[in-house]
# Entry
Amino acid sequence: MGKSLTRKIIESHYVKGSLVPGEEVFLKIDQTLTHDINAVMTYLAFEALELDRVRTECSVSYLDHNLLYVNNMTPDDHIYLQSAAKKFGVYVSRPGNGICHTLHVARFGVPGKISMGGDSHTPHGGSIGMLCIGVGGMDVATAMTGVPMRLKMPRVVQVRLTGNLRPGCNTKEVILEMLHRVSIKGGLGNVYEYVGSGAASLEVPARATIANMGAEMGATSSIFPADEQVRRFLTAQGRAEDYVELLPDEDAEYDERIELDLSELEPLISCPHQPDNVIPLREAEKKKVQQVFIGSCTNTSYSDVARAALVFKGHHVHEDVSCTCAVASRQTYRELLRDGYIDMLLAAGVRMLEISCGPCCAIGQTPPTNGVAVRTSNRNFKGRAGNPTAEIYLVSPESAAATAITGTFAAAEDILGADVARLDTIHEPDTYLVDNSLFIEPLPPEEAQKVEITRGPNIQFLPVPEAPEEHLIAGVSLKARDNVSTDDITPASAEFSSMRSNIPLMSQYCYHRYDPTFAARAKEMGQSIIVGGENYGQGSSREHAAINPMYLGVKCVIAKSIARIHKGNLVNHGIIPMLFEDPASYDLIDQMDVLEIEHLTEQIPTRRVAVRNVTKGKTFYVTLDLSENEIDVVLSGGQLRYLRNQLAELEEA
Ligand code: F3S
# Structure
């Protein structure tokens, strides 16, 4: 039997462990990426490990998310990150250069390599046949030390794409259809490998929309073959020498297969408040739309924005709509400017924003009270846009443009009629406008050692948890519903994002939009336990959703299921992730009940723990879906303590 592309890459990076799906494997990591609103904790952790320099082939620190300097905090963070990168041999992408995933695939991605990024949409790089995995910031710090990284060996799902997209359809339709079929947690533990004639027809940025938003299925990653499209893309980026053909074997073995005919797709829309709530756009109730945002790493390639501009041509944004556009990279912006598409957007009344993530993570363009916002980004959780009363809908750039014109949900064909076919004339440039002047290259080691790291007053300490107690008795500080997202736990916005370097301050806003009384209650309780439903901690990789509760004294999260990246973050930051053995036990617990666990450290390695609800006088069981290595980390009191011991042992050996 032949091998999938995923299997080939994993085998070529194998260090130890098992290649059986679901079991733990340790891999060599080639590249890492971080971004400004998550990375301060990553570099504080790396500093604490007292290494001189990163030990990867390439690590990049992107300053891309929060470019609104509303106070001193974010510029302080950026100066800290820039100086830390200089000290540790890391590339810096300066503000205004573009969004991390778009830039990384264009300037650093290499087929067959493995990258780990401190952002859940890191799988974007799967568009060029690279295995890219989103993790928490502590995992990125670990990968930067060069130690092999643990990964649950994924199941590999073949997605065979056939046919061709119809004019007016975008690969956003493909990933929305996948979400509709697979759901927001159905991809857990899987890598989706896209093959077939339909995949071969898609240019790299179009593939990236699918790979990027595969994160919304809970998948470990998504990947496309490194084929002629990848060769063309890397050549157009001036990096033909980085191309290597990498394909799955004809008779490759897969754990599951999915067939998807592109020609059967029509414009789709993801409705509030989960990305998998997908229906045909023509069936959406015709609500009045107040905001349209064309932006994010998911859907602002050259082709995306040029097609949106063609929809706008000769039309104007509806008078009741505020339509904004943030192009994903400076390179793309300049190409669109050169080819006249930015002018078409401006002529239509589109508000051009800074080149950054911006509104995608609630940094600007918050919708009005009870507003309806249509976006080309990837998440529509309640509050994701900064206002929990708003409804967020996700569509393609073509549909977003049509919606901005009509003031209600519409597709490109509604504006262009049969002329919609002209959108198919848009392709990626044969040669991109390569300009690396907003990257800062790593310093040579002897110069790097002389760099002083600059810390503004907002750069506070990295809290380090204690090892678990033998006898835990703690109240339930929060009983949460299903599908709590990391946005619910750690809200996003220009103001909140700038607090992330200051845990004592940020922790006061933990669960702020979900339950504003939580932080004070948890602090008052001293130590506590959170109870959650299904898919706890879905969404963004932000590890502050673990650090802030840990800082407030949360010792365990007991849930029906926990999202992959968040589970890793809990382990890394000393909160024990536990799963109800019988999901019905969830109903036997109320907020403020007191729970007791005896002989906790003895029970942890057995992965089955008895929990007594002292208030209700009942005992229930929880399981620990943790690998041997994760058990060791939990018993050590988190990844930093564990890693320090590991590195000390390596030095001695
Ligand atoms: Fe940025 Fe949104 Fe992508 S926050 S990295 S544009 S998912």
Notes: Residues 262 and 400 are 20 Å apart (CA to CA).
